[in-house]
Amino acid sequence: MKDYSISGKTVERLSLYRRILLGRKKDGATHVYSHELAELACGSAVQVRRDLMSVGCEGHTNRGYDVPALIDGISRFLDAAETQGVALAGVGNLGRAVLAYVAWRQQKLVVKAAFDSDPAKIDRVINGCRVYSIDAISAVLAREKIMIGILAVPAEQAQEIAEKLISAGVRGILNFTPVRLQLPEGVYVENLDMTVSLEKVAYFTRHPGTADGGEVLPEN
Amino acid sequence: MKDYSISGKTVERLSLYRRILLGRKKDGATHVYSHELAELACGSAVQVRRDLMSVGCEGHTNRGYDVPALIDGISRFLDAAETQGVALAGVGNLGRAVLAYVAWRQQKLVVKAAFDSDPAKIDRVINGCRVYSIDAISAVLAREKIMIGILAVPAEQAQEIAEKLISAGVRGILNFTPVRLQLPEGVYVENLDMTVSLEKVAYFTRHPGTADGGEVLPEN
DNA sequence: ACATGTGAAGTTATTCACAGCC
DNA sequence: GGCTGTGAATAACTTCACATGT
């Protein structure tokens, strides 16, 4: 399999395409055109074709792409062979929101353990996920072979808990906190910073026309 | 003031710089070098200098940048003259997490009203923010002159509620739902899609080295 | 006629390299 | 020597234009 240098943006779009395609499939669609998928994903048709090409998916001239085959092709590229376990650190409102997202229930990613420092939460089961004490992190992550962490703790604890995740074996973190983590090289970090995003929205709402986003659909 | 075409990425970084600078200021720092700020922001020093230049901030040779002046310069660029009101749609776990986060920083952005369809939540006050019925959206947004919305409702309602926000006067949306909204041109939408981001983390955790992120600090 | 696939061109973003300054 | 500011070079990403297939 050739996964030679796929950009982060392409990975994001592929994930989005797949989710859209799963919806289309449920609606009974058997084929999609690149321009249809583009519209649903708020992108351009050429972009869709390039992304799909980059993972080896082919369409039929004049008939578009076969939906189940596409889902399969994207999944073969995005997913690991076996399901990957994920650990959640922080079971506050945000953490519970993460657990409530059933979207990835049937996916290859499963949140297998949650951690919190509040004794009242420990040993509870929320959305099918058990909450452990932070102290148990190394043991649980080793047992479940977890390499992916979601960081949803208060900002003050972010760096400390991130380090605990790393030393427990985590190699990739989805960081919901506004802190920019200082971690050893080789650890992948994706920041979902709502304060930055909100300020961006505020800025481009006040300065329309200068935005990069904002719903534009070039054609071809 | 020349705010001629600042890219979205620069706006994001400026927001981040400011937050970091506020922290440094609280720690008593009076000056920062571009390379210090770069390290804290996980970026490069040249990038920092270019970003700051683009909003007209100047540093002093050999002494770096004056912290309060920098904060001021960035704020003059990012912030509106008066505080901007924000409306939150959806007071589930995610919505409450948003209220908790944003209350934490008393910026020029204030969540002035929240909306939910659950009667049990209506008229409650959470983190200083009152919850209204969805039916009151037009009246409340007009009264508070709100143009920015945060969408944190279940996926099934996302499109519908987004349209209600728009027709109530909102021109920019921070979208936490996994739905790609189909909205009229001129409305700015920023997607914070945790499912996509988690799959991205999973992918690049499994394929290290091909990532764009992952803590690298080139120098100069 | 209309859709895919793709080299080439265009556009945007980042980094290099160095001038100027203290 | 070490820092800022910036033209020039590079890299990354997107779109154009069109060849090809049915």
Explain the overall architecture.
- The first copy, chain A, is built from eight helices and nine strands.
- Chain A is an alpha/beta fold and 220 residues long.
- Chain A has helices at residues 8-26, 34-41, 45-54, 67-78, 93-100, 137-144, 155-167, 194-206; strands at 31-32, 65-66, 84-89, 109-116, 125-126, 129-133, 148-151, 172-175, 188-191.
- Chains A and B meet through α1, α5, β8, β9 and α8 of A and α1, α5, β8, β9 and α8 of B.
- The first copy, chain A, binds a DNA duplex (22 and 22 nucleotides) through residues 7, 9-10, 33-35, 44-47, 49-50, 53, 58-65, 212, 218, 220.
Briefly say what this structure is.
With about 220 residues, chain A is an alpha/beta fold. Helix content of chain A is about 40%, strand content about 15%. In chain A, the strands form two sheets. In chain A, strands 5-6-4-3-7-8-9 form a seven-stranded mixed sheet, sandwiched between helices. A two-stranded antiparallel sheet of chain A has the order 1-2.
Secondary-structure blueprint of this entry?
Two copies of one chain form a homodimer.
Chain A lengths: L7 H19 L4 E2 L1 H8 L3 H10 L10 E2 H12 L5 E6 L3 H8 L8 E8 L8 E2 L2 E5 L3 H8 L3 E4 L3 H13 L4 E4 L12 E4 L2 H13 L14
Parallel strand pairs in A: 3-4, 3-7, 4-6, 7-8, 8-9
Antiparallel strand pairs in A: 1-2, 5-6
Chain A binds a DNA duplex (22 and 22 nucleotides) through helix 3.
